[in-house]
Design a protein that fits this description.
Largest sheet: 6 strands, parallel
CATH topology: Arginase, Chain A
Strand content: 5-15%
Shape: globular
Radius of gyration: 17 Å
Bound molecules: manganese (II) ion
Oligomer: single chain
CATH class: Alpha Beta
Strand order of the largest sheet: 3-8-7-4-5-6
CATH superfamily: Ureohydrolase domain
Structural class: alpha/beta
Number of strands: 8
Length: about 270
């Protein structure tokens, strides 16, 4: 999804699909931790870029909603490379329309529940979780936002997620409780719901994911994120995105490689259920 028109600070995420494709050549098929041959189990295909006029965000949302909706209706599980995080709202709309209200694992430095208060527009990259909660695309108490940290606009920023009884975990909480306890909480909370995973790479520490537009110090480690994802084995994954990779800000393709491997972790979860 080569779109970064929802970026509020440093753009560039529109080029991520090209560079994640290139670096994904390093991803092989056998997942050593899950002991599953991912691409032997799955019928996986690169569906290409969703096409839309890059200057028209309304047409972008329509294109995503329509094309992801078509794929989901055909029984496909969409794995989407962003783009900035604004692309996740129309994806969540399409996937929830197909499967019903979702459990959502949201890895991010930010809550992404902003509205139009700052920019006079509520479709920027700080808003997808607000849209998902307000439209009922997320089931009651089935949101987990992990990696949340940094400076907030104000104390009221957490009101919406609190109203929806979400699990909000900072990197400090993940470190203190440990990945194992976080995974237990997620599995209890998500139960049998269809699961959607959205990963904003700024949820990880900039040391692990330097190529992103809004880096925030003090983030999750790559191993923590991989541990959380692996802990979801057996769950009914119905879609995933990895967003906010900005190749021009990256170093040695580190963040692009991370993106490709995060998608591989999701594909492995799918292969385990196939
Ligand atoms: Mn985000």
């Amino acid at each position: 999804m080569p779109h970064d028109g929802g970026t509020t600070y440093q753009p560039g995420a529109r080029f991520a699909p090209y560079h994640v494709r290139r670096t994904s050549a390093l991803v092989q098929s056998y997942h050593a931790a899950h002991r599953v041959d991912v691409f032997a189990k799955l019928h996986a295909v690169d569906g290409g870029n969703v096409a839309f006029p890059p200057f028209d965000r309304g047409m972008m949302r329509e294109a995503i909603r329509g094309q992801i909706g078509t794929l989901a209706a055909a029984g496909c599980v969409p794995f989407v490379i962003g783009g900035d995080h604004s692309i996740s709202a129309p994806i969540l709309a399409a996937v929830a329309n197909q499967h019903g209200p979702l459990a959502v694992l949201h890895i991010d430095a930010h809550l992404d529940t902003s509205g139009s208060e700052t920019w006079g527009d509520d479709h920027h990259h700080g808003t997808p979780i607000r849209h998902a909660l307000e439209h009922g695309w997320i089931a009651p108490a089935a949101l987990a936002s992990i990696g949340i940290r940094g400076a907030f606009g104000g104390a009221a920023d957490t009101d919406l997620v609190r109203q929806h009884d979400a699990l909000v975990a900072s990197p400090d909480m993940v470190g203190t409780r440990g990945v194992g306890r976080i995974v237990t909480e997620l599995r209890e909370r998500f139960a049998e719901l269809p699961l959607y995973v959205t990963i904003d790479v700024d949820g990880l520490d900039p040391a692990y994911a330097p190529g992103t537009g809004t880096p925030v110090p003090g983030g999750l480690t790559t191993r923590e994120v991989l541990g959380i994802l692996r802990g979801l084995a057996g769950m009914n994954l119905v879609g995933m995105d990895v967003v906010e990779i900005s190749p021009a800000l990256d170093h040695a393709d580190l963040t692009c490689h991370l993106g490709a491997h995060l998608l591989f972790e999701g594909l492995a979860l799918l292969a385990l259920r196939t």
